[in-house]
Amino acid sequence: MIRRIAIALTALAAALVAPVPAAQAAPAPGDGPVVRTEAGPVRGETTAEGRQFLGIPYAEPPVGALRWRDPRPVHPWHGVRSARSFGNKCVQNASWDPGYDRPSYTEDCLDLNVYVPDGSARRAVLVWFHGGGLTAGAGQDVVPDTFARRTGTVVVTVNYRLGAMGFLAAAGLDKEARDGVSGNFGMLDQQAALRWVRANIGRFGGDPARVTVAGESAGGRSVCTQLASPTAKGLFRAGVIESGAYGDCAARTHPDAVAQGADFAKKLGCTTLACLRGKSAREILEAQGDFDWGPVTGGAFLPVQPEQALAKGAASRVPVINGANEDEGRLFAFSRFDLNGTPLTAEQYPQVMRDDFGDEVLSRYPLSDYPTPTVGYATALGDALFACTALRLDGLLKARGPVYSYEFADRTSPPFASLRNLHTDFDFGATHVNEVQYLFKHFGLESPFDARQRALSRQMIQYWGSFVRDGVPRTAGQPAMPTGPGVVLSLRTASKGGVSLSTTVHREHNCDLWDRLAAG
Question: Which one from 254, 432, 506, 509 is the annotated catalytic residue?
Answer without folding.
Answer: 432
